[in-house]
Write a structure and sequence with these properties.
By secondary structure, the protein is α/β, with parallel strands linked by helices. Strand 3, helix 12 and strand 4 form a beta-alpha-beta unit.
Length: about 550
């Protein structure tokens, strides 16, 4: 390798500009090749992460982790892919660091530098693994909360990890201000590069990915020079990086200590829902989302808006009270209970029934409309639908093989740790999650809000959910973008009026915001790649239908 570097150095005339040009070219190649391969596979939304293939520490390793966590089918495959990713990342960074090293400063031998970088690649992979697993959760459920929980810790840790592989003792002392600035700048350039790849048409995406990757070469040159110019740092005897890691991982565990609202702790009837009900003229069933609850209040079974119950109906046809745990049941079970309740409301009122579904309720509604007869439904309002969800898979715990098998066990370990310090009995294998992933093709792409013959539909999508939805989604159902986070976005008076006008008069006025597409393109850089449906045998037949010619953005019909 030493001879190769010398040869390259001679070709680059040993000048700083020549070496920089070579760095730019080397950093442009992996993103361009990855973009070409991914585009050829048909996973166009996944092209957005390709500029990270040559990024600074730790973003490059984060890129590798996400691919390995999604695309392995056995334990042997996971181990083999992990070792290959570590070695390739370590050797690639060795070449980049050697080329960026100032010619007037002594450099470690290439074998020593390679050993340092390969070992560091393994360490960074272990450190970032929990947050890479969170990116897989984002691809599964498309929730903004998980994306923020994935990005923030990595941004904080990046300056502390950037010196690794360049100098010894990188884990002690505060990183130089220039290193901090470069870490933030690389995050910005990777995000902007992802947006550029998403904006340009067709074949230009390969060139855009290579261009964004080339920018990494410039940053590598600056990163090495800044670190070498500040070998003596503040607090040089203090293990700052391990402390930073402990500080960052702490909040992840506090998630488990956030008390789940109980029936007596918060109202089970959202105040905004009551305002909509006061002006609604037709029977509506409201399907609340994950971890919701219902205490059996009379307002839940009196028209016009009645509560859907995850526990079904009592002998008098009234929705039973349910707690948050009931929402963890299988989507198939929930859809069967919805079918019974729709028939009961239709018999009682003699009218067609509308569905007002929030979050998990949108998945129940989609499964019901796609797989079961629904002659009594004529209107559906989707609030916070989980767009482009179901993009990954991991098998149940009893399985010995399957796509994402190691990822599933890592998530089980994370959830177990969270449960040990809190009272949230969530599990990556709860019936809701299991049924969601087993039937993922029904929810991928735009499937959740695809039009259904004979049913009028409108979707209210929070703008911040855009960060979890890769760009390129074209929908036939009218979409209204609502400012804010994921949840029941009915507090806004304008949104309330739109919902009321739709339910009473069938008015469907689309309203899209410019910032939604901006967030889509920016968020695409930090999501896990999607598992191709054709690769997973579990998805070859879903709800009794073949997925042979499946396309996520082509609507399945009942």
């Amino acid at each position: 390798m030493e001879r190769v570097i010398r040869t390259w150095g001679t070709f680059a005339t040993q000048s700083r500009s020549g070496r920089l040009l070579l760095l730019v070219v080397l950093c442009a190649v992996p993103p361009g090749v990855e973009a070409a391969l991914v585009r050829q596979s048909g996973l166009t939304a996944t092209v957005n992460i390709s500029p990270q293939a040559s990024a600074l520490w730790p973003y490059g390793t984060f890129h590798d982790l996400r691919w390995v966590l999604v695309y392995h089918r056995s334990w042997a495959g996971f181990v083999g892919e992990s070792i290959a990713a570590i070695v390739m990342r370590g050797l690639f960074c060795t070449v980049l660091i050697a080329l960026a090293w100032p010619s007037n400063m002594p450099r470690p031998s290439l074998p020593r530098l390679a050993a340092r970088n390969v070992g560091f690649a393994a360490l960074v992979g272990a450190v970032l693994s929990p947050w890479a697993a969170l990116s897989v959760v984002v691809a599964a459920v498309s929730l903004t909360w998980f994306l923020f929980g994935e990005i923030a810790p990595m941004l904080i840790l990046a300056p502390f990890l950037q010196r690794g592989g360049i100098v010894r003792g990188w884990w002690r002392g505060l990183p130089p201000a220039g290193t901090v600035a470069l870490s933030v700048l690389n995050f910005v350039t990777l995000t902007a590069g992802s947006a550029l790849v998403a904006v340009v048409p067709g074949g230009w995406r390969i060139a855009a990915a290579a261009l964004a990757g080339g920018a990494n070469g410039i940053l590598w040159e600056r990163a090495v020079r800044i670190v070498l110019a500040h070998e003596t740092v503040r607090w040089r005897r203090t293990p700052i990086t391990p402390i930073a890691f402990a500080v960052v991982i702490g909040p992840m565990f506090t998630i488990g200590s956030i008390a789940r609202p109980g029936i007596d702790q918060s109202p089970s009837e959202p105040p905004a829902l009551a305002k909509v009900e006061a002006r609604t003229k037709r029977p509506v069933i409201f399907l609340a989302g994950y971890d919701s609850h219902y205490g059996g209040q009379p307002s839940g079974f009196t028209p016009p808006i009645m509560r859907y119950s995850y526990n079904g109906l009592d002998p008098n046809g009234r929705p039973r009270p349910y707690n948050a745990l009931a929402t963890h049941q299988s989507l198939v079970t929930s859809a069967q209970l919805l079918a019974v309740q729709v028939d009961q409301v239709h018999r009682r009122t003699g009218q067609k029934v509308a569905l007002l579904a929030d979050s998990e309720g949108t998945l129940i509604t989609r499964y019901y409309l796609t797989t079961m007869p629904h002659p009594h439904i004529d209107m559906v309002v989707m609030v916070s639908p989980l767009l482009r969800s179901g993009r990954i898979y991991y098998p149940p715990p009893q399985a010995n093989t399957g796509w994402g098998i190691a990822t599933g066990w890592q998530l089980r370990a994370i959830f177990a740790a969270l449960g040990a310090v809190g009272d949230r009995p969530n599990s990556p294998d709860q019936p809701f999650i299991r049924s969601f992933m087993d039937n993922a093709p029904l929810f991928r792409g735009k499937q959740v809000i695809c039009p259904i013959e004979g049913v009028q539909m409108i979707a209210f999508v929070p703008t911040l959910d855009a960060a979890t939805n890769p760009p390129g989604l074209q929908t036939e159902t009218p979409v209204v973008h609502v400012p804010g986070l994921h949840g029941l976005r009915l507090n806004d008076p304008v949104t309330q009026q739109r919902v009321i006008s739709f339910l009473n008069d069938g008015q469907r006025h689309e309203h899209r915001r410019w910032d939604y597409s901006v967030l889509q393109r920016a968020g695409g850089a930090w999501q896990a790649p999607a598992l191709k449906v054709a690769l997973n045998p579990v998805w070859h037949t879903v709800a009794g239908r073949s997925t042979r010619n499946y396309e996520a953005d082509v609507c399945l019909q009942p």
